[in-house]
Automatic annotation (TrEMBL):
InterPro entries in alphabetical order: Acyl_CoA_acyltransferase (IPR016181), GNAT_dom (IPR000182)
Residues in N-acetyltransferase domain copies: 1-145
Gene3D superfamilies: 3.40.630.30
Keyword Transferase set for record: yes
GO terms for MF: acyltransferase activity, transferring groups other than amino-acyl groups
Organism: Aminobacter aminovorans (Chelatobacter heintzii)
Family matches, as SUPFAM superfamilies: Acyl-CoA N-acyltransferases (Nat)
Protein name: Predicted acetyltransferase
Keyword annotations from UniProtKB, A to Z: Transferase
ATP-binding recorded as keyword: no
Length: 164
């Protein structure tokens, strides 16, 4: 399996993959594919990585700039999608590890996300009550720091997350 940056020819597949992955996901807004498109259109897809095997795209992850308590240099993870019939084979983990390594390389301060702690703790994400998002319960708001900077305050995602 190869992890690489998206190419223009991948856009329709990423859209279909994102729709399929989230079709039955609990807590989904069903707007995740539109969010990826809006981030791309706004030039806010800091990283858009695909996992490819034998020429077939199996998974995708997006990372985009966020502020935390007004502080820039942080990135938001998501949406992340794997085709339903390919889930549970390590594809999501490979994509996320690859993306986090790349964010470290570009000297991001760290990464935040809204998601299930049972999945994201394996990457070092922790819930921190000092980091908040839209009044969500603390355990779903997670952060990973890459250096000395510690995030504090409300996460503000790119406006593309309002797409539908
Ligand atoms: C979440 C997702 C990207 C994970 O990718 P994946 O390739 O299936 O996951 P991996 O094979 O890398 O990891 C499998 C492990 O993650 C766990 N896992 C997968 N999805 C999970 C979830 N939503 N919550 C908790 N654990 C999850 C599996 O139980 C498995 O655990 P184990 O290693 O202890 O056995 C994929 O399942 C997906 O596309 N889901 C639908 C869309 C979605 O919910 N995206 C994330 C929104 S926050």
């Amino acid at each position: 399996m190869n992890i690489r940056s998206e190419q223009p020819a991948d856009v329709a597949t990423i859209r279909a993959l994102t729709r399929a992955a989230f079709a039955n996901a609990p807590h989904s807004s069903q707007t995740e594919a539109a969010i990826v498109d809006a981030l791309r259109d706004a030039g806010a897809l800091t990283l858009s990585l695909v996992a490819e095997d034998a020429g077939k795209i199996l998974g995708h992850v997006a990372f985009s700039p966020v502020t935390v308590g007004g502080d820039a240099g942080w990135y938001g993870l998501g949406p992340v999608s794997v085709w339903p019939d390919s889930q549970g084979r390590g594809i999501g983990q490979s994509l996320i590890h690859h993306g986090l390594d790349e964010l470290r390389r570009i000297e991001g301060k760290g990464c935040v996300l809204i998601g299930d702690p049972a999945y994201y703790c394996r990457f070092g994400f922790v819930a921190d009550p000092a980091v908040t998002y839209a009044g969500l319960p603390t355990q779903y708001v997670q952060r990973l720091t890459f250096g000395d900077a510690v995030p504090s305050g409300e996460i503000v995602y790119h406006a593309g997350f309002g797409a539908s």
